[in-house]
Each structure stands twice: as structure tokens, then as C-alpha cells.
């Protein structure tokens, strides 16, 4: 237990995952997760659906994670895909300040471009202004199509709006984009996909080539084919392939903590001095149990 490496997955959509995933992640060393707000696979038709989703990210999901010994934080924003419904987008934008101030919200995100439409551009910029005003970190989703141009444009726009690149995490990088991101002083996050795109064998080579400064590994696991253990698996593959432990620690834990702890809401003490798991606890009268014995750690009173 003592020398098990601590892992942070700074991009994972736990709402779409099961309690088995939480258990497996905790067993693999994941101590904290960040859940970006995103689209749900099907477009929402009314602002109330966004409101309930945001509320679950700051409420129920955070509670659910705690029941498995994992600290849960989130990022709040209007995703690029749904920015294209402008009437709805206007209403969602109005809602954001209410949630950006909540206890476990560590950044504005995930925002950026999908198809790089004028509406996406408009709401991306609007949210960058919001982040600047609130002095918050930004988590940027880069497009999967036309990735290189979309990544460059995302960074240009951030700089144009006067954001500090050191407070902007550019996600879903690959070997084609990483150099540009690091050279401009942004944080480069890599999503490890189990079957296609960025696999963890490739990630090992990225760290070997570019080092561990300003590089973050995440799973982006969601409702699609994805792996919530991508970060711990990549960490162990890196060690196996001779990457120094220090570099693994930075890319799979420390760099994410450094940037996302900026507004003081995500703190290492949260998991270094755990209160213990008490599954007898309820959230609005609901528990994660289905009639089984709750797990209650004996040492929870500290
Ligand atoms: Zn995502």
C-alpha cells in the first residue's frame, strides 16, 4: 500500500461509468478525478437538462465517488457541440456563473471547438472571458477532425483573449500537436484511447521524446468505448518501458494537481488525510447501496 503510486485522472466522465469502475480505479491508485461537463451523446433540448446535469456534477456524482474513496472535482462549461444551438446556448451561458463558484469546480471546461463553426467560436470566446474574469483555469477540448488547425486556433484565441497559457489545459493532443502546445507555454493533456487514436504505447514515446514538464495523461472515459483505468495502466506501462518514476509521477499525478489546484478547491490534503469510506451515508436520502452491508472504515474518525 505504502509505495503504490497515487494517480489523478483529470478528465473522466464518471456519470457514465459504474460503481465497478470506481472500485477498480481506487484499487489501481486513483485518488482523485476531474469530471468535465460535456454533451451526453444526444443533444439536450432545454436549459433545465443542463442545470440538472451541472447539479449532479457538483452534488450526487461527488458523493458517489466519495463512497468509493475517490475525491471528485469537476469543470463546468458549455461544450462545443451544443454551442451550435444558439437559443439554448444563450440560456446555458447565463447559468454558468452559478455553478463556477461551487465547491468542487476547478476550471471552466470542457470548452472549445468541434466543427469550428461561428457559433462554437462565439461561445468559446464568451467562456474564455468568463474564465479570465473569475481567474479560473480553462480546460480545452480540441476537435477530433482537423485536429492540428483546431488546436492551433484554440490557442490563438486563448492568447487573443489574454489568458495565461500556463492556466490553460489543451486536451486530446497527439504527436502532431504536442510541440506547438508546449512551445506556446500551454499544458498538453493526452487522452489515452483503448483501441484507436492515442494509445498508451504511443504515450510512452511522447514522454520519452518530450519529457514530463507540462504533460498530463487522462482517460476521457465516458459512455463510448473507453477505459477508466487508462491512466494507471499508462503509468505502469511507462515504468515497464524504463521511464523514470519521477516523470510518471508528474504526468499521471503532479502536473494535473499543479494546474487544477489553482483556485484552491482541489487540495492534496483531501486525499492524504482521508476520512475513510462510510457507505452508510446518504445523499438526499439516497445511497449507492442496494440492500447490501455498507462498508464503514473503522478509522474514519480523525
Ligand atoms: Zn471529455
Describe this structure in words.
This protein is α/β, with parallel strands linked by helices. The chain has a domain at 7-112 and 192-272: TIM Barrel (Alpha-Beta Barrel). It is 40% helix and 14% strand. It has 11 helices and 8 strands. The chain has helices at 19-27, 47-58, 60-66, 86-100, 118-134, 147-160, 178-183, 200-210, 230-240, 245-260, 269-272, and strands spanning 7-9, 30-36, 71-76, 105-112, 137-141, 168-171, 187-191, 215-218. It has an 8-stranded parallel β-sheet with strand order 1-2-3-4-5-6-7-8. α2 runs parallel beside α4 (86-100) and α4 runs parallel beside α5. The protein is globular, with a radius of gyration of 19 Å. 43% of the residues are buried. Bound molecules: zinc ion (ZN). Zinc ion binds next to loops. Zinc ion (ZN) binds next to loops. Belongs to the metallo-dependent hydrolases superfamily.
Descriptors:
single chain; 302 residues; alpha/beta; TIM Barrel; 8-stranded parallel beta sheet; 8 strands; 40% helix; binds zinc ion; UCP005295; TatD DNase family protein
Please summarize what this structure is.
With 302 residues, the chain is α/β, with parallel strands linked by helices. Helices cover 40% and strands 14% of the residues. It has a domain at 7-112 and 192-272: TIM Barrel (Alpha-Beta Barrel), CATH 3.20.20.
Provide the residue-averaged pLDDT. 94
User: How is the CATH topology of one domain named?
Assistant: TIM Barrel
Low-confidence stretches: none
Which CATH architecture of one domain would you pick?
Alpha-Beta Barrel
**Fraction of residues in helices?**
40-55%
Write down the secondary-structure element order: EHEHHEHEHEHEHEHEHHH
CATH C-level of one domain: Alpha Beta
Radius of gyration: 19 Å
Protein name: TatD DNase family protein
InterPro entries: Metal_Hydrolase (IPR032466), TatD-like (IPR001130), UCP005295 (IPR012022)
Keywords: Hydrolase, Metal-binding
GO molecular function: hydrolase activity, acting on ester bonds; metal ion binding
